[in-house]
Design brief:
Blueprint: H1 10-24, E1 30-32, E2 36-37, E3 43-45, H2 53-61, E4 72-74, H3 80-92, H4 96-100, H5 105-112, H6 119-131, H7 133-152, H8 157-169, H9 190-197, H10 199-210, H11 215-222, H12 244-258, H13 265-274, H14 282-293, H15 304-333, H16 338-361, H17 373-401, H18 406-411, H19 413-420
Antiparallel strand pairs: 1-4, 2-3
Amino acid sequence: MLNHPSSPAPVETSSVAIDAIFKAAETYSIVASEDIIDVRGIKLWSKGQAVSTALQQKLLERKLGKPLEACLMAEDGVTLFSLLESLEAFCTNKSPLAMGLAPWHDVLIKQIKLMPLHSVAQLLLTTGLATRPQMIDHAVQAMALTGSMMAACKGSSVDVRIAMLAGLLHDIGEIYIQPEYLDHSGQLNLLGYKHLSVHPRIAQMLLASTTDYPSVLSRAIGEHHERLDGSGYPARAKMEQISPLGRMLAITEVALGIARAKSAPLTRISFALRVLPGEFDLQFAGFMSDLANGCNEVLPSDLGQSVSLTIDHIADIQARKRIAEKTREQLSVAKANIQCLEVVDVVQKRLQRLEVAWNALGYWGISAADLSPNEMMELDMAHRELAQRLRELEREAMLMTSKLPPVEQQQLSDLLQCIQMKTNQD
């Protein structure tokens, strides 16, 4: 059975969502879709009445009989019509991703017109539009990518629509997270990781409890940060524990994170999905590789400085491994408990896999002056992916260590420090 992490305290989570919804109501028309009743059966707000600060104050004082999201609807904001316009705008832009997905544009346009947009989904998307507009751009791109992948896999029309909905809604759990933890420009601390890591689970539970969408949709959204090798979150699920649609969303999330790169984004995406075997589903990773192979991207020619840094950066893996080995020896002597040793085992196995992956590239000990432009590009990508995997390993180790007694947390401090040492050099 998977161990899903606990969600943030209900009052805290609810207050974040309530603040966001009422902020959205300052711009868009959000009304009660039914009478809003508290747990004692007292009516707080009438059906059809626009939300206001008066209702917000009542919500701070009363507990509702059913989720607030199920009692509200957005009359404007994000609608199927606005989503269609956004999708058409994406399909006609000249970004490498949009151009790569051109063979499926007609399918996407046809299926979005038939896509069921539940009132809860519409409310949360409208809230995202008002509070984090970039979230909607990301959602539309994810909708296009997942729909295209499903169509390319010969999925039925229903399958394509479910995949599009999964892409569209995969990040709605972020509305329940404190905004400061969504700023990825800085390094998150343990509290930030804990908050951020539950957003897939929040979205899964919300959709499962307040909408009539199929369970395969909400499950996949809960899995969109998982990895086949168990290095993802929130459940550290592995292989068959992750649904096919969840595996597709994991590819989508990684791809869109890299698609913003100014140079050769599809080439970078393809490399990221292949560099560490066992992380991603080969079928869906292959879809992205095919896009990259067919786009003939121009590779940058000015990577000399980053490549020289990369060679030094990769060599540090062995230094990290030595610290992990020393920590393991010290814990064995101290007869540490199995949970403490498990943290070290995870770090050692992940570093070993990273070393094998980078050795497979064949660049150990090579001078940057001896590399061709294509090799420089590959090594530059390797540098970035190494830094990303170390950040992910640090997150995983920190979350595991946080469950241990203070004495054992202190015993692992050198290990955590060695993972963190140079994760900001990318």
